[in-house]
Amino acid sequence: MQVDLDTLRGFFRSAPFMVDLGVEPTAVEPGRVSTQLVVAKRHCQHTGVVHAGVVAALADHSMGAAAQTMAADGHWVLTAEFKTSLLRGASGERLECEAWVIKPGRQVSFTEAEVYAVQGGERRLVAKASGTMAVTAARQG
Question: What CATH number does residue 17 fall under?
Answer without folding.
Answer: 3.10.129.10
